[in-house]
């Protein structure tokens, strides 16, 4: 399993792109420098009126399938 730590700062109006069908993924850079494309929908539980802000731990299996996401 792989664990990746990412920092996300996404304004609420940008998250609307998901609902309007214009965006499905979010490209983020992990703290160790890797660029990772994540489904925007996995951040839905962390959405507030101002957007999505914070540090997240994303866990993958050996085939790079998403297992879990947690806000730190």
Could you write a compact summary of the structure shown?
The chain has one helix spanning 12-19; strands spanning 2-11, 25-29, 35-39, 51-60, 66-71. By secondary structure, the protein is mostly beta strands.
Key traits:
72 residues, 3-stranded antiparallel beta sheet, single chain, mainly beta
Q: Can you put this structure into words, describing what you see?
A:
It is a single chain. By secondary structure, the protein is mainly β. A three-stranded antiparallel sheet has the order 1-4-5. The mean pLDDT is 90.
The shape, in one word, is: globular
Distance between the termini: 18 Å
For this structure, the quaternary state is single chain
Number of helices: 1
Please describe the biggest sheet, giving its number of strands, its sense, and whether it closes into a barrel: 3 strands, antiparallel
Strand content: over 45%
Spans of 5+ residues with little confidence (pLDDT < 50)?
Answer: none
Order of helices and strands: EHEEEE
State the share of residues found in helices, binned by percent. Answer: 10-25%
Secondary structure class reads: mainly beta
Query: Radius of gyration from the CA trace?
Result: 12 Å
Please give the structural blueprint.
Elements: E1 2-11, H1 12-19, E2 25-29, E3 35-39, E4 51-60, E5 66-71
Antiparallel strand pairs: 1-4, 2-3, 4-5
């Amino acid at each position: 399993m792989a664990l990746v730590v990412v920092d996300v700062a996404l304004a609420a109006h940008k998250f609307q792109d998901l609902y309007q069908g214009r965006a499905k993924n979010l490209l983020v850079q992990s703290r160790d420098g890797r660029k990772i494309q994540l489904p925007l929908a996995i951040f839905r539980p962390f959405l507030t009126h101002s957007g999505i802000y914070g540090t997240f731990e994303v866990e993958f299996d050996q085939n790079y399938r998403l297992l879990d996401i947690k806000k730190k």
